[in-house]
Write a structure and sequence with these properties.
The protein has 788 residues and is an alpha+beta fold. The strands form twelve sheets. Strands 2, 3, 4, 5, 10, 18 and 19 form a seven-stranded mixed sheet that branches. The chain has a five-stranded antiparallel sheet with strand order 12-11-23-22-21, sandwiched between helices. Strands 1-8-9 form a three-stranded antiparallel sheet. Strand 21 and strand 22 form a beta hairpin.
Length: 788
């Protein structure tokens, strides 16, 4: 009995004693299982992110516009610093006890870290001390994406001072833009959070990729246990963007814009867009002021920076202190230079918009090339009199002449003939307005596109119809205008503009490809052809667009001068395209606010240049189109008038100072080459061609100064089979001039020489004119085919 009681009590008390243990074990293993499992994993493993490489951005020719390269973040481990100090102290103590040298262990690890990083990184020692004091932390980042020279210094410092584990360099990526300022507002930039602006922001999801992870085993002190356990999760690199932009054309656009701004005393920058007529692809897009993508937080433009004090004063007037006011003002300047005026800003298009009105009127049959008009200098619209740019009137004129004269009353008449309903319909078709009255935009694949500011249809009365007919009192973006104008001249098709041609993943698979299919046909091919012919006349017939004319290039276009909301401030523009018979490139040039030293009725710059699209923007567009066509290797097309007429008398330049002689020659339409040693004050001793002779306008005259003199005679080259360009170059090389005959209206690369007035190999005097007969090889081939 006693034994059984003892066994019972022992069992009872044993069970009772184990109940708390079982309960505690249940709590640990069941109730808190997930919590403790995560703690164990955290204690026993370490993780390190493997940064994915951001995708590269290429232009249409494969040039790199943005690329990521390996860079390093500088990190310290306060916990490892303490452990390193304890390790050295133990070794020092043991060395002292055994009588061995201990200098190698007599170090202040924390002091070495603080002093070294303060010196190399230029950081405050007190802040570094504070970071080192968090001794439970293994990760304190001191700097991100340091330059290569800093990386090398830190690696050497770690090795020299035995600080491995206390300071380490963590791999990261740094965005680099090889072309610096090129296409800055389009490409955009990144910050610590990824894409912040431009395409870098719009295509963030495609470019950023997916980071990987390395998981390693750690001991009880939190240090990695090498060769024990490691798991690696690959990073997925970002996708690459292939743009429609061509770095060469982009550079031409930016250079042309800066030159136009400088030469025309422009105060608020400008924009240029170059677009493919066949697809709507943007070949180049410039906006000024611009900035350096590698240093985007610095204002580059001195003129913009010069407004800092005035802007800061505005904030001070609102109650901000000096420092805050300057910070806000500088932020405003940064936003100004980051802004893409070609898509973000709206403006009144002015007379460039008349090209759209012309197309709509021709398409609807309310006018024809045979129409004539009489401009008296103004037109009455209800109770308002609206003036023409020529107050005295243009008198009787054809439709083509009215387009070339940019006659407001004629375009108001066209708008009235269309009527409000049809006019507004074409605003919708050209992408200028929406049927519901909401703001319209093109949908270009760039961030921050602005939208049109156009009247609702219900408010679109007779006066608004009249002013809209010549491009006033409504606002659109430059990208909207060029997309619409492209439909006028490319056969009638409206294309959505775009800058990203395709996206490729890291394996080369195309994950996105732009679709250049037109969204709709706005006008017929025949109407488009008529518009092209009339717009070519604006440039080639000596009218408002004459300053865009370039011999050998068939350029069409339309000028524009629009007043901003600030009285006396203008945006001058030119819409141009080439070749006019088969357009490949359309450009839009806009210069914002040339300095006006005149009046509203007669605005001129301080240097005396009249403020107008024809006088300022047209020359920029003409030069740009020539550069682009040459770059794309489109052959020149000379008119018979350009090559046939040896009709310009050469002035007498001998005996004049070189500077004056060149000015006089240029005033007559010639260019000059100078042979000999001297300066602008040197006397011209000889000239070719001779004074009083007649040579083609635009020819180059050779002026001899110093001891230089022309040869008595030159050998005439054989021109047979040469194109117009080749023949002119061959004759020019020996100082002779060309008069062309025999071809049709246009001389192209298919036109070849079959006869010359002075036989090859004979001698002639420098400056003589050689009559050259041309024939189109295509015509000749057709004739031979008919005979065969």
């Amino acid at each position: 009995m006693l034994f059984r009681r003892t066994i019972f009590l022992l069992t009872l008390f044993g069970v009772l004693a184990f109940i708390p243990v079982v309960g505690h074990m249940w709590n640990l293993q069941i109730t808190r299982h997930e919590e403790l499992e995560q703690k164990a994993i955290k204690q026993q493993t370490g993780t390190m992110a493997v940064t994915a490489s951001r995708g590269t951005i290429y232009d249409s020719q494969g040039n790199v516009l943005a690329i990521s390269s390996t860079a390093y973040d500088i990190v310290i481990s306060p916990k490892a610093i303490v452990q390193k100090q304890e390790e050295l102290d133990k070794k020092k103590k043991k060395a002292i006890e055994t009588g061995k040298p201990y200098a190698d262990y007599d170090k202040d690890v924390k002091g070495l870290v603080v002093d070294g990083m303060a010196s190399i990184l230029g950081q405050d020692a007190g802040e570094l001390e504070e970071k080192c004091s968090d001794t439970e932390s293994q990760y304190k980042r001191l700097a991100q994406k340091v330059d290569k020279d800093v990386e090398d210094q830190i690696r050497a410092y770690i090795e020299d001072n035995g600080l491995t584990g206390c300071i380490y360099l963590q791999p990261n990526t740094k965005r680099y833009y090889p072309y610096s300022t090129l296409a800055s507002q389009i490409v955009g930039f990144t910050n610590d959070n990824g894409g912040a602006y431009g395409l870098e922001s719009t295509f963030e999801d495609e470019l950023k990729g997916k980071d990987g992870l390395v998981v390693t085993a750690q001991n009880g002190r939190g240090l990695d246990v090498l060769n024990f356990f490691q798991d690696y999760y690959d990073a997925e690199d970002g996708e690459d963007l292939h743009l429609t932009l061509d770095a060469g054309i982009q550079q031409m656009c930016e250079s042309a814009l800066k030159k136009g701004i400088e030469e025309n005393e422009v105060q608020d920058g400008g924009f240029i867009i170059a677009m493919s007529c066949d697809t709507g692809a943007v070949l180049g897009m410039a906006s000024y002021p611009d900035y350096d993508l590698n240093n985007y937080n610095k204002v580059l433009d001195e003129g913009l920076l010069g407004t800092l004090d005035a802007r800061a004063q505005e904030y001070k007037d609102k109650g901000d202190d000096e420092q805050t006011a300057r910070q806000k003002a500088y932020s405003d300047l940064l936003n100004t230079q980051w802004r893409n005026k070609a898509i973000n800003d709206t403006y009144e298009p002015g007379s460039t918009f008349k090209s759209l009105v012309l197309a709509a009127a021709l398409e609807e049959g309310v006018t024809s090339p045979a129409d004539t008009f009489n401009c008296t200098g103004s037109i009455q619209v209800y109770d308002r009199e609206i003036n023409c740019s020529r107050r005295s009137g243009h008198g009787h004129q054809t439709l083509a002449q009215a387009v070339g004269n940019s006659c407001n009353p004629v375009f108001i008449t066209l708008g009235q003939r269309l009527g409000e309903e049809r006019f507004y319909h074409y605003l919708e078709e050209f992408g200028i307005a929406n049927a519901d009255g909401s703001s319209a935009s093109t949908g270009i694949d760039l961030p921050g596109e602005g939208g049109s500011l156009v009247w609702d249809y219900k408010d679109f009365g007779p006066v608004n119809l009249a002013t809209a007919s010549f491009g006033q009192r409504f606002n659109i973006t430059p990208i909207q205008l060029i997309a619409a104008a492209n439909a006028v001249i490319n056969g009638g098709y409206y294309y959505q503009p775009y800058v990203v041609d395709s996206v490729e993943d890291a394996k080369g698979n195309v994950t996105y490809s732009a679709d250049p299919t037109p969204l709709r046909q706005v006008i017929s091919a025949s109407t488009s052809a008529t518009c092209r012919e009339m717009l070519e006349g604006v440039v080639g017939n000596g009218l408002t667009g004459k300053n865009a004319y370039r011999a050998g290039y068939r350029i069409g276009g339309k000028t524009g001068t629009s007043e901003t909301l600030v009285e006396g401030q203008y945006i001058v523009s030119f819409l141009g395209f080439a070749p006019a018979d088969d357009p490949k490139v359309v450009v839009l040039v806009g210069l914002d606010n040339p300095k006006n030293a005149g009046s509203r009725s007669y605005p001129v710059t301080p240097s005396g240049k009249y403020i107008s699209g024809g006088g300022m923007a047209a020359p920029v567009a003409g030069d740009l189109l020539v550069d682009i066509l040459d770059y794309l290797d489109y052959g020149k097309q000379y008119t018979s008038d350009e090559l046939a007429g040896a009709d310009t008398e050469v002035p007498k330049l001998v005996g004049l100072d070189l500077a004056y002689a060149k000015d006089l020659a240029q005033s007559k339409g010639f260019t000059c080459a100078v042979v000999g040693e001297g300066d602008d004050t040197s006397e011209v001793k000889y000239q070719t061609a001779a004074s009083g002779s007649y040579v083609p306008k635009g020819s180059e005259l050779t002026l001899y100064i110093g001891e230089a003199a022309p040869p008595d005679s030159v050998a005439v080259p054989d021109l047979t089979g040469k194109s117009p360009d080749q023949a002119m170059a061959a004759l020019h090389e020996v100082g002779l001039y060309m008069k062309a005959t025999g071809s049709s209206k246009y001389y192209t690369d298919e036109t070849r020489v079959y006869n010359q007035s002075i036989a090859a190999g004979t001698t002639a005097k420098p400056g003589d004119v050689v009559s050259v007969s041309f024939q189109d090889t295509t015509d000749r081939d057709n004739e031979l085919g008919a005979l065969g």
